[in-house]
Write a structure and sequence with these properties.
With 141 residues, the protein is an alpha+beta fold. Helix content is 45%, strand content 20%. The chain has three helices and three strands. It has a three-stranded antiparallel β-sheet, covered by helices on one side. The radius of gyration is 26 Å and the shape is rod-shaped.
């Protein structure tokens, strides 16, 4: 008769190890997924800002006074880009009309972390476009 029976000890060890490894894999997969979602949000924000930058004020550009954004047109163009990309966000045109800033809000749906109650993570993206013009060097440089 044995005093200490250790049968089944390796099964408990394997179970603990398996759960730990799955948790680590889950964090890596969902962390990478959130990073990709953040990069996508930044890219969408940059493209929306560029789309807004195409809406210049013709009343100032045609006579050669200045190349500035038409605030309403820039906001509308950027908002339309965000809408087509399927994300929400905000668009801001600077007071001098030279800079369009876009902030994107979206979510990343988790694959592994949903098991522990984290179904999604918020993701934000930022983009900025500055209007410049010039033949040899940008104006104001």
């Amino acid at each position: 008769m044995r005093a200490l029976d250790d049968r089944g000890g390796i099964a408990v060890y394997c179970a603990i190890l398996t759960v730990s490894l799955l948790a680590i894999i889950g964090v890596v997969v969902d962390g990478g997924g959130k990073l990709r979602a953040s990069e996508r949000a930044d890219a969408i924000a940059m493209e929306a800002a560029r789309a807004g930058g195409q809406a210049i004020d013709p009343g100032k550009a045609i006579p050669g006074d200045a190349v500035v954004a038409d605030p309403e047109g820039a906001r509308a163009a950027a908002a339309e880009y965000l809408n087509k990309a399927g994300v929400s966000g905000s668009v801001n045109v600077s007071g001098d009309g030279k800079t369009i800033t876009v902030r994107v809000n979206t979510t990343y749906s988790t694959r592994f972390l949903s098991v522990v109650g984290v179904a999604s993570m918020g993701v934000t993206g930022h983009g900025k476009a500055t209007l410049i013009h010039g033949v040899v060097a940008p104006e104001g440089a």
